[in-house]
Amino acid sequence: MPPFIPFASADLGAEEAAAVAEALASGWVTTGPKCAELEAAFRASTGAEHALAVNSCTAAMHLALAALRIGPGDEVITTPLTFCATVNVILQTGATAVLADIGDDLNLDPARVEAMITPRTKAILPVHYAGLPCRMQEIWALAEKHGLKVIEDAAHAAGAEFCGRKVGAGPSDAVCFSFYANKNMTTGEGGMVTTPSAELAEKMRVLALHGMSRDAWNRYGKNGSWYYEVVECGFKYNLSDILTAIGLVQLRKLDRMNARRAEIARQYNEAFGKLDEVELPPNRADSKHAWHLYVLRLNLDKLEIGRAEFIDEMKARGIGCSVHFIPIPLHPYYRRTLELRDPCERALAEYPRLVSLPIYSKMTNEDVERVIAAVRGVVEAGRRKAVAAKL
Predict the structure, then answer these.
(1) Does the annotation mark 183 as catalytic?
(2) Using 50, 70 and 90 to split pLDDT, how confident is the model at 124?
(3) Considering 34, 166, 183, 288, which one is annotated as catalytic?
């Protein structure tokens, strides 16, 4: 039997191993010169004014919210179709998370956002679902009209573009990226936050390391000083040079890795566009999709099998799949704690249809053909059952 194709796998090799060895040999195993190098390289790659390397996208979002002084009494609007971290960081500031439903592109719907704005609303936190940028022009216009901050959850969107500009370089107050193990580029655990504001960048840098004054970052270097002051009640969100060394190699490979993802998505679209039983992932002409995820939507009215059986059948054929995401209102904690002003009907209706297929840069053409054959086989079996049931 051919080897199992996992849902995700990082594209790592000898270059990353050599970079880690170099970092270890340098003696800088925590935050040091490699972090500064990655921040500079990420600024150059995205066109961002400022960038701060941190230990996760979750940390990046929390830092941004905290540095913007969002807290108790404030409301932040975000999407129901996201990972729990997006909502948790809002709650951890003491603010209220307000959900607004998704649109046709599975991203936050600007019209639903506007309907949720109240005098207590302080920020919008859009999520670029699967790597397709949100309709940011409309979101920025809403923010300007109502005097709101914008923090982008770009965990899926490294290398994505909107209206000819890289995600991370727009007018949003902060844009937060993930370098987690399954992301388009990885440091194992890690992330980055970009901002056009020098003041906000400095606030986040201080908060990211216990609230210590900026010179504390360099106190062990040749020109550093032992003296520091705690100027804020901060966090421990810095990224180590060991992990940053991996990120520097990954960033150099990002365009190539994203191009491979796009080619796989093209092959999938060509194959699955002929199947009435599934709906292709959304895309838009104004954006360059990062293809972090390839999300099929099952047309369940044309299949006897449901999503769970579909995934089980794929696994039996040696293909790993996943689901992105269980909508926020379906989790017990949020059912107890969030006021659902918007019923999020679109997100809840789409959820039973969502299946994420493997898509990562080191997939071979043979791997891709196996995934295509498996989807066709499961769909055809489900179709035959549906036909038989009607006889």
Answers:
(1) yes
(2) very high
(3) 183
